[in-house]
Amino acid sequence: MSIRLGDIAPDFEQDSSEGRIRFHEWLGDSWGVLFSHPADFTPVCTTEFIGFQKHAETFRGMNCELIGLSIDSLYSHLAWTQNIQEKFGVEISFPIIEDIKMDVARAYGMVHPGAADTQAVRATFFIDPHSILRAMVYYPMSNGRSIEEFVRLLQAMQTSDAHKIATPEGWTPGCDVIVPPPKSPDAIKARMAEGYKTTDWYYSTKSL
């Protein structure tokens, strides 16, 4: 059964490049971004790991931990991260899960037989401090993810949680946010006088 938004993210206990990890316990009261890659020592994955590392402090500043995964062995993960440091000058500061038996990949629906029989596709999962799955993003094997978009998405979700609003397309901090639409005839009549930037009864925005 596939996991869905709003589900509790599957818990697991696995070895990683930073030791044994019990996932929910490791996250604690932090957000988490769990992301899979098809294989170590591959060029697209290398660029993605460098990208995640370049934004690692930004994620940590938003109370969010990063954790990678592939079906490669722990020794492969260790060798690959050392190679990234030696060849690209980037030290990976987040753990990478060993998932040789593909238990975690299957629990999270990372294995898509139509894309690859034995590899996890480029899947990214956003998990909130209550262990609830809040967003899922899948990319094809051939194309790297945009880490800046993941930063933006996390900022948007945290802003929505804090202020009970929605965010428009391409929203970034400082832009106007969307006020929830009214849900009754009386609320519709009152909306125009509520001081928002109202285009029509269902579409109102405000600045934070």
SSE map:
Blueprint lengths: L12 E4 L2 E4 H5 L3 E6 L6 H12 L1 H6 L2 E7 L3 H15 L7 E3 L4 H5 L14 E6 L5 E7 L7 H17 L13 E3 L5 H7 L5 E4 L2 E4 L2
Parallel strand pairs: 3-4, 4-5
Antiparallel strand pairs: 1-2, 3-6, 6-7, 8-10, 9-10
Short summary:
The chain is α+β, with helices and mostly antiparallel strands. It has helices spanning 23-27, 43-54, 56-61, 74-88, 103-107, 147-163, 185-191; strands spanning 13-16, 19-22, 31-36, 64-70, 96-98, 122-127, 133-139, 177-179, 197-200, 203-206. The strands form three sheets. Strands 5-4-3-6-7 form a five-stranded mixed sheet. It has a three-stranded antiparallel sheet with strand order 8-10-9, with no helix packed on it.
Protein architecture, described:
With 208 residues, the chain is of the alpha+beta class. The chain has 2 domains: 133 residues, Glutaredoxin; 43 residues, Antioxidant, Horf6, Chain A, domain2 (Antioxidant, Horf6, Chain A, domain 2), CATH 3.30.1020.10. 32% of the residues lie in helices and 23% in strands. It contains 7 helices and 10 strands. The strands form 3 sheets. It has a 5-stranded mixed beta sheet. A 3-stranded antiparallel beta sheet has the order 8-10-9, with no helix packed on it. A hairpin with a 2-residue loop joins strand 1 and strand 2. The longest helix is centred in the C-terminal third of the chain and has 17 residues. The mean pLDDT is 92.
